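Subject: Protein entry, chain in single-letter code together with its fold tokens

Category: Structural biology, sequence-to-fold work with a learned token vocabulary.

Notation: Tokens come from a learned vocabulary of local backbone shapes, not from coordinates.

Start of record: The labelled sequence and token lines come straight after this line.
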Amino acid sequence: MEEQNGVERLLEQILEVQREQLEQYKSVTKRSLELQQTAVGRQEQISKIYRIALVVSAIVVAGIIGLVFYLLQYLPTRYR
């Protein structure tokens, strides 16, 4: 009889440890998901900034090229 009680206590302890592990797993999984969502949000922000910088850079380069061609018109023909 006492052996039966010992087995029952052991099984209850195992069950309790499994429940604790499940709660820890849920907590870690939830935190991991939150971190992934934060990372995705930051990547979206960075990609928007990158696109804006790329467009601005393209406009600046186009402006410089246009300026060079404009100034080339005023060079005397002997320097061309």
About this structure: Residues 72 and 78 are 12 Å apart (CA to CA). Residues 2-79 form one domain. The two ends are 110 Å apart (CA to CA).
